[in-house]
Each structure stands twice: as C-alpha cells, then as structure tokens.
Amino acid sequence: MARKSLSLFCAACMLAVTVPGMAASQYHPEVAAHRGASGYMPEHTLEAKSLAYAMGVDYIEQDVVMTRDKKLMVMHDVFLDTTTDVARRFPDRKRKDGRYYACDFTADEIRSLRVSERFNPKTGKAIFPGRFPLNTTIEYRVPFLEEEFQQVQGLNKSTGHNIGVYVEVKEPDFFAKQGLPILEATIDMLTRYGYNSPDSRAILQIFDYDAVRKARELGWKGPLAMLVEADGQGQKDDAAVHGWLQTDEGLKELARYATIYAPDFALLAVPSQDGKSYTRSDLGDRARKAGMKLHTWTFRVDSMPKGFKTTKDVMDFCFKDLKLDGIFSDFPDVVVNYLKENHLR
Ligand code: CA
Fold first, then answer.
1. What are the two backbone dihedrals, phi and then psi, of residue 160, each rounded to the nearest 5 degrees?
2. Residue among 233, 300, 306, 295 nearest 263 (CA)
3. Where are the alpha helices (DSSP H) in 145-181?
4. Residue 224 C-alpha to ligand 1 middle, in angstroms?
5. Ligand 1 centroid from CA 63, angstroms
6. Residues of 182-195 as b/e, b for ≥16 C-beta within 10 angstroms?
7. At what angle do helices 182-192 and 145-159 cross, to 10 degrees?
8. What are the residue numbers of the active site?
9. What pLDDT is recorded for position 13?
10. How close is the Cα of 9 to the center of ligand 1, in Å?
11. Residues 6+ apart with CB under 8 A from 168
12. For the chain (length 345 residues), average pLDDT per consecutive 10?
C-alpha cells in the first residue's frame, strides 16, 4: 500500500514538473562546428578547432583522408591544393589531372605543408573573400586525427566539458582502390580513444552507403550518420544510390545501420528554379519515421541557402519547423546564440 501511494505521488510530481514547457525543455538540438569555426579561421586547423570549442558547440568535425604511409590526416578534400602551399613546395608531384592527392604524400611531407584559408587553385583567389585573409605568414599545419582527439579530450579534461567529435571518412571507395584502408583505420583510431560505444560522444559520418553498412560489420557501435546529397560522392558515381536513400524503401533499409540521416539542406528546403523561394520537403519527416535522427549541413552566414533572406529565417525553419536534431555550421556561434535566445539550450 505504501509503495503504491509513493508511486502515485511520484507520478503526480512528474506530471506537475513536466507539463509546463515540456516540449521546449526536451528539445535540445546540437551544433557541430563544420571543419572547426571555419567561418572565422582557416578550416581544419587546430586553431579553428579551439575557437569552435570555446564557442560552446556540441561537436567538432574532422574530415579524414589517408596519407601514402597510412596515417589519418584531417582535411576536407582528397586534394592538397585548395588549402595548402603544396603546389609551391612540391611542384613535380601532381597527377595528370593537375591535382595534388593527399594519398601520394607521406605524413612527414604533409606536416611540412602550410595551411591557409581555402582558395581556388586555378586562380589563387579566396573562395570566401570576406573571411580570414589568404596571405599571412602564420604557419598553420595540417592536423592528424589522433592530434584532434587529443586536443578535444585534453580540453574536455581541462574545462570539465564533454564536447564530442563528428568524424567523416572521406571517399572510402577511392582510398580502398589506392590500397589505403581508411575506414578500418578510422574505426580503429576511434576505438583506441574510447569512442566505440552506443552512447559515444563520437559520431561517424559517411557519404558512402556501402561504407555505412561496412562500418557496422567492422564493429562500429557508436552513432552513425548517412550523408545524402543529390549528386552523390565526388570520386564515386553513386547518385542513384543517393536517390534511393531518399525513398521510403531506402530509408527503411538505411535505418538498420544508420542512426542519423544527414541530407544536404537543399533536400529539405528545395530551391525554386529562380532560387528566390523554396519548398519544404517531407524527406526529414520520413527519415524520422524510419527511426533516424535528422541532421543537416551546412549553415553559412556568408552563403545563404536559396530562398532565404536572413539568418533568422533559416534558423526558424531549422528549429521551429523542421525541428532538426543537429546542424553543421561554419559559424557555430551564430547557431548557439540563436538556440540560447530561443531557450533551446
Ligand atoms: Ca565533412
């Protein structure tokens, strides 16, 4: 009798506590710093990662590519020539297509390169002219995945926070064809740093559906995000697979492996032909119905998505309409501030 009264009392307490504002307090969308705070500092430098950390994000992103001697380095492109001085330092090392591939260089050679703000290798001009200056003499270096983990875990220790990592394996099929087991090595490294568990503070993200499935076969137990884009990957012709991943059948199949569905923002807010408006798609709702969380990419204040005029318009769409679970941003502080102002963190 006493136990029953107690449980009734507890149920009443919960009701009293949970009813007012319950929906708002339960909804805590997460912010991932895209290539670090890349809107403010050269992408994928440890400096840009520290800045992002200080902005109060939930996750810091690492894009991973592999060197010739099988070391995991952090860079967005499989090419070195859009963010480093490789063309000046190693002019004879380009392939027939004129590009410098990370997988043709050793880790020591990569370490000798200097990183700058992103630029067009043909014109030498900055991709985002309003961002950090292109020509400085600061010696930013390419980080390695292990160093990124040490830095985030080091900051977690010294600050008492528990910020996560959001690790993308770039082009696993391309690297496998070069004899470089990038997926296996990335999962090994995550495991070595204590990240391989279902409640992990590491999310593994991949554009390649075969690799998403293989990640589970290889024993990845943590959160797993399927990145989806209309055109598929750069080095693999898989646009048809990405189309299928937007069907109910594809979503249901995918949900056996992936815990997060992470489409390009343009698949959620589909731009009109003239780019002046957009249509809200039901893709995110269907992905959720299939049992996955919904993340998207990439929010940039200096490159607004088509059909949106202001930052607030984009943020309201993301968090009041779509109710995203997470978003990547080059300007993570803008998202963090919006969420704070709207009592979502
Ligand atoms: Ca990425």
1. 85, 0
2. 295
3. 145-159, 172-177
4. 14
5. 5
6. bbbbbbebbbebeb
7. 20
8. 34, 76
9. 43
10. 49
11. 61, 62, 63, 64, 205, 206, 207, 227
12. 44 43 72 98 98 98 98 98 98 98 98 98 97 96 98 98 98 97 98 98 98 98 97 89 98 98 98 95 98 98 96 98 98 98 95
The per-residue pLDDT for 234 is: 83
State how far the Cα of 34 lies from the Cα of 151, in Å rounded to an integer.
Answer: 16
Q: How far is the CA of 316 from the centre of ligand 1 (A)?
A: 24
Looking at residue 235, its pLDDT comes to: 84
Angle between helix 182-192 and 209-217 (nearest 10): 50
Q: Which of 267, 228, 262, 266 is nearest to 244 (CA)?
A: 228
Residue 236, pLDDT score: 87
Distance 296 CA to ligand 1 centre (A): 11
> Hey, where are the domains in the chain?
26-78+143-341
Assess if CATH 1.20.120.140 describes domain 26-78+143-341. Answer: no
